[in-house]
Each structure stands twice: as C-alpha cells, then as structure tokens.
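quick one before i forget lol
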Amino acid sequence: MTDPTADPTSGSPREEPGAEAAQIAPDLSTRSADREADADDASLREALHNVRLQIGRAVIGQDGAISGLLIALLADGHVLLEGVPGVAKTLLVRAFSRALGLSTKRVQFTPDLMPGDVSGSLIYDARTAEFEFREGPIFTNIVLADEINRTPPKTQAALLEAMQEHQVTADGVTRALPDPFLVAATQNPIEHEGTYPLPEAQLDRFLLKLIMTVPDRDAELRVLRQHADGFDPHALAGIGAVVDAQQLRAARRAAASTAVTDEVLGYLVDLARATRHSPSVQLGVSPRAATALLAAAKAWAWLSGYPAVTPDHIQTMLVPTWRHRIRLRPDALLEGVSVDAVLTSVLQQTRVPI
C-alpha cells in the first residue's frame, strides 16, 4: 500500500503544507537569539575593558595584575598579590573596587590579629541582655588582606571558610557573604622576619598568584609625572564605577559557559600529571588546581573574545594559577630552581593538541 504522505520523486515522506516554514522559523529565532547573545557578550566585554582603562588612570605599569584581578572576579576566585613595598598593590585593589562600584574593606594583618577581628564576633548587649553578632570586615565585596603572612595560621584560617564557601559560621549560625566576593591578599617576598608562611591549604584557596614587579623606566616616568601634576592616590579622583552588579553576574555566567573541547581538557590533564613527575617537584598540582586552571582559562578566553578555550589560553594562565600550588624538592631549591622555571619546562615538554 502506498503511503499517502510519501513524495514519489525523493522517496522521503512528503511534508505537510507549512511544514517547511515551521522548520525555518525556529532556525531564524535561534540565529536571532545567538546574535543577541553575541551582542550582549560584546557589550559586557566592552564594559570590563572600560574597567581596565579606569584602573589604568591610577595604576601604571601593572596591566597584567589588572587583567588577573578581572579574571579572578569572572572565575569567582581570589588573588594573592606578591611584590616589594611601593609597587601599588593596595592602590590597585582600591582602584579595582572603585571602578566596579563594589564595596571594599582593608584588614591589616598583624601578629596579634584574632580570627574574630576578621570574620566578626558575638558582642554582649547590656540593653537587651543578649549576645549580638557584629560583622567583621570580611562582610564586603572585596577584602584587601594586607600582608597576610604577618598573622599566625590561626587567623589566616579565619579566611578559609569565607574563601571556599562564601560564608561565615559563628556560634552555629551561618551567614552568607555579599556577592560578588573576592579576597585580594598581599605579601612581601623579601621580608621574612616576623612572618608566617601560608600553609598549602590556604594557598590552594587562591585562584591566582600575581607577581607585581617594579615598572619599567617609561612607566615609572609616567607615575612621577602623574604625582607631579597633583595626583592623590588616596582620593582616586576621576575613577568612577563603569559596571554594575547585574553586569558582573552576567559576565561571570558568560565566562563560565565558554566551550572547551575534550582535546584541550586532555592537554590540561597532561600538564597536571607532568608536574607530578618532574624531578624537581616534591608535590605536584592537585585535581583542584586543574579545575582552577580551567576556570581561569575560560575567563581569559571569554574576556579575549574567543568562543572556546584554546591551548594558548591554558598556557597563558598556567604559571599564575599553579606557581603557588607546587612544592619543590629541597635539593632543587638549593640549586636555585624556581617554580616558574619548572612550570615553563613542563609547558615546553608537553605535547600540544593540534
């Protein structure tokens, strides 16, 4: 029996009238939605580019650190800033929060700082005869943990739950932290007297470790010209908010949805395993470090306008994401081997997918 819906010229079922138009309409709407999404992404990237320009008015010669802070914010991570005094670590964080329109608080870490001084504590109210929780400085969008390695591990650990879970628990009550939430901690690489090295568990909570070096001659000349013209680093005049919280959340969602192929994921795993077999390494990176690199690479790919993560994005973000997660062997340290050199060698020796 002949199928009444079959087309005798093609051997395929005959489409009902209007079926072709019905198929075209969803395609058109899908393409339209894709164009709108691309336009939204471009608008968000432009807004974050303006953030970089705003920060660049106050912080000169630290473009890499500015990009690193933006990547950490997009990847919902935290940043450890290392540099000698006077390279604008504190100024960078203040300008960053101001350009984003986010609240910020500074905590000066000292040997006598207590955990409650960071997270908050219960205070007895004589008027009500009850204990009331008084929020610590950690209840803000961006926390500047200045000289974090000058406080004992007990106080450093007060940041662990906040950095990992974005919450603080006191007296059995859990309190959520603002969204977005980022910890930008600073430390001095040359002054070791009276410091407490951060334990591995604490270091692992930082998405990136950024090294802020002394700017080159041209940049330093621009800094001096800026101050000669009356620049006040405390006032930060001329830096205003160019994005809002809704745009930041949209940008984070867009960055998180950046595509990544199995080949690139395999490349990332090969790099992680290579650190564990390096003759100079005592403790290689963990699977959590691999997921951190993936998040950072996706944020960098999206910020650069790429639809998917490429090996180049993995290579660019590998050193700042892993340099604080590797422990070298004592004999390698005695020979003057650096973590950055080991990671560079790992990149050179690992096959890159085509």
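fyi The longest helix spans residues 19-56.
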